[in-house]
Write a structure and sequence with these properties.
The complex is a heterodimer of chains A (501) and B (173).
Chain A (H helix, E strand, L loop, with lengths): L2 H6 L2 E2 L7 E4 L1 H13 L4 E8 L2 E8 L3 E8 L4 E3 L8 H12 L2 E3 L43 E6 L11 E7 L2 E8 L7 H5 L4 H8 L7 H16 L5 H29 L3 H22 L8 E2 L2 E2 L7 H25 L1 H7 L7 H6 L4 H6 L7 H5 L18 H25 L14 E9 L2 E9 L5 E7 L2 H12 L7 H8 L4 H4 L1
Helix pairs in contact in A: 5-6, 6-7, 7-8, 7-14, 7-16, 8-9, 9-14, 14-16, 15-16
Chain B lengths: L2 H9 L12 H10 L2 H7 L3 E7 L5 H8 L12 E3 L8 E5 L4 H12 L6 E5 L1 H5 L21 E3 L6 H16 L1
Parallel strand pairs in B: 1-2, 1-3, 3-4, 4-5
The chains are: A alpha+beta (501), B alpha/beta (173).
The complex binds iron/sulfur cluster.
Chain lengths: 501, 173
């Protein structure tokens, strides 16, 4: 039996547009067995609510499928032995809801550092905890001359906090282990019992650099739940904002990768181009990062007068200057020496973790949710998804360069298609369950929401792409020198806040 | 080739914005907080250590933008340093998660006197939208004495610059 058939043997629960199937314990075990042989079915996410665990899968060329299991005893057969990507989700599910994954590969805590004063805060009655926080445990490393370098949670640069434990032999990294969770703000808990309109500001703040994409994914999940169709102008404006967000982040990261190789000039130029995009966004949408712009039902503000011209002008500058910058990037051996063959991510691993975005596309996995399953307005637009096989820092930079050019072209045609019209509908007070899948600059963002009959949030989960990318960063750095870690890290640029929830 | 670009940059107009105006009331309030000895010791420059205590990373994006050529913070004597031991200012963002509290305290303890603490962003002021969560203290002021708050979600680079320049100005008086 294929994995997808195993899921479809369950009872459909009416989730839109991707069906969720409730499996009996025997069916869930059959799914785990099927996943062992069926390598095609990709795990996208795993989460929970009191009494249930849920998993989202992607069957290439078929679409997204959700599977659930009731867990009255608060335990379920683990997926991590057959899907490596499940490891951190299982640790998070245990920390937040208290559901144990039986037979899990890794039982250590993840988000829970023992400092909340309670355990399983998302469970109905979280027990108080008064014991002092335990020391974190790291995976053991053996070998002659191996020593460890602990880094963080506070890093040297202006970046988010997280702890990295490098085990090195001489200069070479033999293992990197990240310990995250420092940014855990209890975001999911704050969303419960609120209307989608009120909860949208938490989705907008899951990861600030992807605020548009996450707001959109959340809005789309809520709209799918109640069957609300958004006005055409709002759909186009959402896409304009999402492409501007992709652009400014890619420009930022291209610059930072060069900076980490001490090539400050490219960093400065990219920084200026990005600043131009942010200022245009502020002029068009009233906020540099376009936070709280996308709301369930449409967009909060229409494009300001003169906004389209400002955006066009900023993008024209980007498009004009980029080829010259790429020439400088190509023409300097000192820079190429640092990025080519550094931080290599094998295509097999990218496929096994179903990783998306520039990380996946630089390692041969061409998945782009704008294409497949596809959503408006992208399903009526022509664009190609760049894919490379090299899998190194250089390939990830080149994917980003290609995407900058493409996003600029997309914005141009989106603006050309704008017709006057309303941009926001009232959000109905109705129940339902929906999924939203939106391509952020890092890759697909997957949101799931369940509304009760009064239209308030009963259960919700927001999965940033970084869940799948963080473990691969650990794989990509293996065998590289410690000094190349910043380059690898920036070429991925995983979100900390996005996974710390 | 890089050198034609460098020549163009040398002969062209500056890309950097003019300095923002500094609110006088803020400067006076800050000057009162700093004693004479500290003023002479800090001089007219500030080394800044940024500490993210639960931000959504929106604040970090704007703090980082201060270093781009449009804002060019170094022209004012403001620079980011890698360690709190080298810092005059801790620039703290986020609602102060319980998981970051100990790290922030340690960073503050190893920042040498005289030192400032700046809370940047609505989250850092009082928890912002995350107010009431089990996982946060609800603002940096819950753990440490804050000298200056820069509200905004996130504060723009211009607002951040105004705040930091007010600190510099307060030292000079
Ligand atoms: S103030 Fe706003 S931008 Fe800054 S960390 Fe908080 S939510 Fe993010």
């Amino acid at each position: 039996m294929s994995g997808a058939d195993a899921i479809r043997s369950g009872r459909p629960q009416g989730c839109r547009p991707h069906q969720r199937y409730l499996l009996e314990p025997g069916q869930w075990r059959a799914l785990v067995v099927a996943l062992r042989d069926d390598r095609a079915l990709e795990l996208l996410s795993l989460w929970a609510e009191p009494g249930f665990v849920h998993a989202a899968f992607h069957q290439p060329n078929e679409g997204v499928l959700l599977a659930s299991l009731a867990v009255p005893e608060r335990s379920y057969p683990a997926l991590s032995p057959v899907r490596a990507g499940a490891v951190r989700f299982e640790r998070m599910v245990r920390d937040l809801w208290g559901h144990q994954a039986e037979g899990a590969v890794d039982l250590r805590p993840w988000l829970d550092h023992g400092r909340w004063g309670l355990a399983a805060p998302m469970s109905p009655r979280p027990p108080a905890v008064i014991t002092p926080p335990p020391q974190p445990e790291f995976l053991p490393v053996e070998g002659e001359g191996v020593h460890s370098i602990p880094v963080g949670p506070i890093h040297a640069g202006v970046i988010e906090p997280g702890h990295f434990r490098f085990h090195v032999q001489g200069e070479t990294v033999v293992r990197l282990e990240a310990r995250l969770g420092y940014l855990h703000k209890g975001t999911l808990g704050l969303m419960l019992g609120k209307s989608p309109r009120l909860a949208a500001r938490f989705a907008a703040r899951l990861s600030g650099d992807s605020t548009v994409a996450h707001s959109w994914a959340f809005a789309s999940a809520a709209e799918n739940a109640v069957g609300l169709a958004v006005p055409a102008r709002a759909v186009l404006l959402r896409a304009v904002a999402a492409e501007l967000e992709r652009l400014h982040n890619h420009l930022n990261d291209i610059g930072f990768v060069c900076n980490d190789a001490s090539f400050a000039w490219l960093h400065a130029r990219c920084g200026l181009l990005r600043e131009g995009v942010l200022r245009a966004a502020a002029q068009g949408f009233g906020h540099r990062l376009m936070m709280d712009l996308v709301v369930p039902g449409g967009v909060a503000r229409d494009l300001a007068p003169g906004g389209a011209e400002a955006i066009r002008a900023a993008l024209a500058t980007v498009v004009a200057e980029l080829p010259g910058l790429v020439k400088v990037y190509d023409g300097h051996a000192s820079l190429q020496d640092r990025v080519v063959a550094t931080g290599h991510l094998m295509p097999e691993l990218a496929a096994r973790f179903a990783v998306g975005g520039h990380v996946g596309r630089a390692s041969g996995r061409g998945f782009d949710s704008r294409k497949l399953p596809g959503y408006a307005p992208y399903n009526t637009m022509a664009f190609t998804v760049p894919v490379l096989e090299a899998g190194d820092v250089d390939a990830r930079v080149r994917i980003r360069i290609a995407e900058v050019q493409q996003s600029a072209a997309l914005v141009e045609s989106l603006l050309a298609r704008l017709l006057p019209g309303e941009v926001k509908l009232d959000f109905p007070q109705a129940g339902g369950e929906g999924v939203g899948l939106v391509e952020a600059f890092r890759g697909d963002a997957l949101h799931w929401v369940q509304l009760d009959d009064g239209g308030l949030i009963r259960a919700v989960f927001m999965r940033d792409q970084s869940w799948l990318q963080w473990p691969l960063l650990e794989a990509a750095i293996e065998g590289n020198i410690v000094a190349d870690f910043p380059l690898c890290n920036k070429s991925f640029n995983c979100s900390y806040s996005g996974v710390d929830l | 080739m890089l050198w034609p670009s460098l020549v163009r940059a040398l002969l062209g107009k500056p890309l950097t914005d003019p300095a923002p105006a500094i609110p006088d009331a803020t400067v006076q309030a800050l000057a009162l907080r700093l004693d004479q000895a500290a003023q002479t010791r800090l001089g007219r420059s500030l080394s800044i250590r940024e500490v993210d205590c639960g931000s959504c990373n929106g604040c970090e994006l704007e703090v980082n933008a201060l270093a781009n050529p449009a804002y060019d913070m170094e022209r004012f004597g403001l620079k980011f340093v890698a360690s709190p031991r080298h810092a005059d200012v801790l620039l703290v963002t986020g609602p102060l998660t319980h998981n970051m509290r100990e790290a922030l305290q340690r960073a503050w303890d190893c920042t040498p006197e005289p030192k400032w603490l700046v809370a940047a962003g609505d989250c850092a002021v009082d928890g912002g939208v995350f107010k009431g969560s089990y996982a946060i203290a609800g603002g940096i002021g819950e753990a440490l004495p804050v000298d200056l708050v820069i509200p905004g979600c996130p504060p723009t680079p211009t607002q951040l610059l105004e705040g930091l320049l007010a600190l510099l100005e307060a030292q000079a008086r």
